[in-house]
């Protein structure tokens, strides 16, 4: 069953054609990594999946809902589709544990004791149980991102979107975040769509790699195939450039 | 001092009405101002246009004109005393300025806060109420403090429409005692009794909220 399906999707920012004729199907449980040079439309594409960006043409079906249909209730989709941002976007006016408990309380009406138990469990899982009552401003970037992941997981989503989750982190922080992401990919049947520049992570975790440039999908192959022998010339060039440093 | 002793009940009564008008107008203008700030920021053209028109109208017309409009025109349709007309006018007038402060506060909050909340499953209203507005108010406190202090001083507009406030009583005392200077000095001191604590209160609030960021 497909979790996310793009059919002939077009996206414009004014005159700028940001996504061109996107056709893409991601099955439930799959881990898909989206790579490409900056400005290629990766972030735009991932942000259309939970409706943070509107599409202008085509069909985008997420978890059975058509996002291009104005009657679709976006909140219903977002309940089941979590997102982790490059700049974390933790609630600056809430403590760490409140960040995690807020949406389950307001949206899912989860019982307060249960909510707290789940939140603490998640904090332990990302190794930050001792920071539960800190404000986000007291955390390092890597810690913030792990809290953000815990916040998304607290909603028990079917699908998680990662928009360059390690790009704003200091190098020594990246490993902890990737480790958490890897555990999610391996231990759960979560659908994951990840925009990243971490090739090691892609190689180790992804079922499929999608290469984008200039708003188009240029290659969509299995991870093994992609890293061994990409068919697209630009993908080849991109890989060799990334591999060189 | 003899003037004060002689007319103290008038001063106290005026002080009471000024305090009451200020409190009502403060709450009303804060609620209205926040509402119109949200309208101005709406993605729907109609709503944002409406919000904008309201703010532009009320902040660009003298308070005295608005007050007289309510006292002379609106009061013909809906019966109201000078006190009510003045307080309503003061609320509407101040709300336009508060809307601008709150709007600036909201715009200063990183877009990621709203996006994070929406992506987390919150509705726009929930995200605004629980995440964005509390942070926006924190930013807006110094400017809101200004508006509140202006509001208290502007409440002297009630004197023009027989609003029984401090300035109204001050005028009476000045006229019957013939000691204009002392009368208005006393009135001025009473205003300070209201505005100084307000001023320091807002400053305290600002510092305290900075602390627990």
Automatic annotation (TrEMBL), chain A:
Q: Which InterPro entries match?
A: AAA+_ATPase, ABC_ATPase_HisP-typ, ABC_transporter-like_ATP-bd, ABC_transporter-like_CS, MetN_ABC_transporter-like, P-loop_NTPase
Q: Where is the ABC transporter domain?
A: 4-239
Q: Name one Pfam family in it.
A: ABC_tran
| Zinc-finger in keyword set | no
Source organism superkingdom: Bacteria
Q: Which UniProt keywords apply?
A: ATP-binding, Nucleotide-binding, Transport
**Residue intervals passing through the bilayer:** none
- Keyword Ribosomal protein among record annotations: no
Q: Which SUPFAM superfamilies match?
A: P-loop containing nucleoside triphosphate hydrolases (SSF52540)
Q: Which family does it belong to?
A: Belongs to the ABC transporter superfamily.
The molecule here is called ATPase component (GlnQ)
């Amino acid at each position: 069953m497909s979790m996310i399906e793009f059919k002939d999707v077009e996206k414009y920012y004014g005159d700028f054609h940001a996504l061109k004729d996107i056709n893409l199907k991601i099955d439930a449980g799959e881990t898909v990594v989206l790579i490409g040079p900056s400005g290629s439309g990766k972030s735009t594409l991932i942000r259309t999946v939970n409706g943070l960006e509107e599409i202008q043409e085509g069909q985008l079906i997420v978890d059975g809902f058509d996002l291009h249909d104005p009657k679709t209730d976006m909140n219903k989709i977002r309940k089941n589709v979590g997102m982790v941002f490059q700049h974390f976007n933790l609630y600056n006016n809430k403590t760490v544990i409140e960040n995690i408990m807020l949406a389950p309380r307001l949206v899912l009406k989860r019982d307060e004791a249960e909510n707290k138990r789940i939140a603490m469990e998640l904090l332990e899982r990302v190794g930050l149980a001792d920071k539960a009552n800190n404000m986000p401003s007291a955390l390092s970037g890597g810690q913030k991102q792990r809290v953000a992941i815990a916040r998304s997981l607290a909603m028990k989503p079917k699908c998680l979107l990662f928009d360059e989750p390690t790009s704003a982190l200091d190098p020594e922080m990246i490993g902890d975040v990737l480790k958490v992401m890897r555990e999610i990919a391996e231990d759960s049947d979560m659908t994951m769509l990840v925009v990243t520049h971490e090739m090691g992570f892609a190689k180790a975790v992804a079922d499929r790699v999608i290469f984008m440039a200039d708003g188009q999908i240029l290659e969509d192959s299995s991870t093994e195939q992609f890293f061994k022998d990409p068919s697209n010339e630009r993908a080849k060039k991109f890989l060799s450039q990334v591999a060189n440093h | 001092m003899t003037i004060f002793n002689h007319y103290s009940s008038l001063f106290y009564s005026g002080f009471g009405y000024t305090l009451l008008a200020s409190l009502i107008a403060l709450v009303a203008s804060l609620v209205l101002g926040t509402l119109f700030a949200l309208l101005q920021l709406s993605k729907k053209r109609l709503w944002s246009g409406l919000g904008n028109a309201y703010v532009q109208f009320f902040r660009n017309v003298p308070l005295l004109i608005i007050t007289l409009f309510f006292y002379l025109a609106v009061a013909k349709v809906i019966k109201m005393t000078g006190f009510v007309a003045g307080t309503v006018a003061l609320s509407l007038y101040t709300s336009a300025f508060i809307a601008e402060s709150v709007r600036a506060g909201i715009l200063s909050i990183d877009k990621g806060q709203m996006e994070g909340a929406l992506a987390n499953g919150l509705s726009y209203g929930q995200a605004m109420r629980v995440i964005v507005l509390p942070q926006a108010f924190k930013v807006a406190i110094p400017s809101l403090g200004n508006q509140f202090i202006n509001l208290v001083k502007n409440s002297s507009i009630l004197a023009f429409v027989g609003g029984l406030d401090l300035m109204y009583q001050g005028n009476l005392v000045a006229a019957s005692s013939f000691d204009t200077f002392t009368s208005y000095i006393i009135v001025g001191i009473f205003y300070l009794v209201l505005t100084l604590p307000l001023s320091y209160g807002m400053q305290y609030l600002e510092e305290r909220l900075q602390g627990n960021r």
